[in-house]
């Protein structure tokens, strides 16, 4: 766990266009992630994270790259006390997490026969940081739910916390 990057790859029976829509459409992201993004999906645009009515707004939450059907990258959200309380995070753990540098996530979408290869790279992590451990569990569950939604029309139930 000494790397500052987490990488997760999967194959989804869908099209690049449908996968892009699932990564950017608030109605779809809310279904498998519980988050809706308010943004224009253009490089430099701000991003507001809406999780069940809890809005996280920060000038450093921005779209880094957006090439429809191919590549999407943005900075990770700001950790707020409201977010920490909602996910039942211990105060000491929250304080450590809030001091970590801002990370970023990149989705690379590549056609692969009748499927699409999705590679999620979450980088700029503190090598021994809290966020690295959280996303190490979170991304596989999240991407599995995304895959299920695109392939069956039904997202997976949220895993217990």
UniProtKB/TrEMBL annotation:
Listed transmembrane segments:
none
SUPFAM superfamilies the UniProt entry points to: Bet v1-like (SSF55961)
Pfam family name, one: AHSA1
Activator of Hsp90 ATPase homologue 1/2-like C-terminal domain spans which residues? 14-151
Family, similarity comment: Belongs to the AHA1 family.
Protein name per its UniProtKB record: SRPBCC family protein
Where does this protein come from, organism-wise? Streptomyces tanashiensis
